[in-house]
Model the fold of this input.
Amino acid sequence: MAHSNLPDGLHLDTLAVRTAVERSQYGENSEALYLTSGYVQSSAASSAARFAMEEEGFTYSRVGNPTVSSMEMRLAALEGTEAAIATSSGMSAVLLLGMALLKAGDHVICSQSVFGSVIPMFSREFAKFGVETTFVPQTDLAAWKAAVRPTTKLLFAETPTNPLTEVCDIQALADIAHNAGAFLAVDNCFATPVLQRPVRMGADFIIHSGTKFLDGQGRVMAGAICCTQKQRDEVFLPVIRTAGMVLAPFNAWVLLKGMETLAIRVKAQSASTLAVAQWLETQPQVARVFYPGLASHAQHELAMRQQSGCGGAVLSFEVKAADADAARKNAFHVLDSMQVLSLCTNLGDTKTLAAHPASTSHGRLTEVQRQAAGIGQGLIRVAVGLEYLDDITADLARGLNTL
Ligand SMILES: *Cc1c(COP(=O)(O)O)cnc(C)c1O
Done:
């Protein structure tokens, strides 16, 4: 698709507001929303050439749409990849990745700390089609290495993880993958390209849930895979145009505008998150705070090196309690006492959202899987938004102070 004409060497902040398909004949300054399913063809011959992928141009919005293309180009520019392919949600990006790359007999190595729905995607859905997955501890490089088999095709990691913010060494995982002749896919939803660009550290595919920071205001579902142009055209597009989990043009347009403010939002929300994390560490009712920006975090130094010196805008903390039942009760009390923050499982919103992972995002895991992922009943995840800092801490204090 024809790109708007931009000079080389532009900074991420500039690319985030400028990268898009060419303006239409009307010269609109804000990118157009092309809410159309089909496209009128100039001739039968041109239509045939477009359907055969021999001529550039749009035919049908399951195959391509200018607003979706703009969103894909903008995200690829931010991640530093040649291309991206948009999907209807973050999970459908994982589905597309698996459908396009894997076949019966292939083996996957996946972190056991990935987003809740990713685990059954591999262990249950892809397993039905003969793909076997080994789950390994996120930060144990020896375990990743030991899991490699001749049939290993894909390594899948997310860093920092949801909700414990465990950080893995992307470069080291890329080396393990490439030595095994496999690909590394990194879910970059938490850090976003503002803090971390995994392709620069050797990752082959970047997975996004656009539902989170790319939209940034909690409005739409969206997802994407960032990759090379050749992979987009030859590996992913043939699958998505058949399977159909494409991004709706309206949702793409929301993300396109969302990405314009991504950098300032992520930086401001991350600064507040560090302050909330430091405050939580001083609270007597709090057993532990999980945040890569804290010196107490197990991978603090790696995180600072890998994430532009920033911990990101999501933290988790555990309330003190005698046992699991009491922990759940205390966590529920803190969440039910909030008057400002939203009790909501999303993240990456301008509104601060708090949630109880053990009964929501990770509620479908078995108790064994949940314990392996380290998700206790007293754990609360906070995705910090743009409210005034003292209002956020005061709202958490309401419940904590009455435990
Ligand atoms: C939300 C999320 C997903 C799934 O994305 P959806 O848009 O909800 O389908 C995947 N990975 C991470 C890290 C997420 O936070």
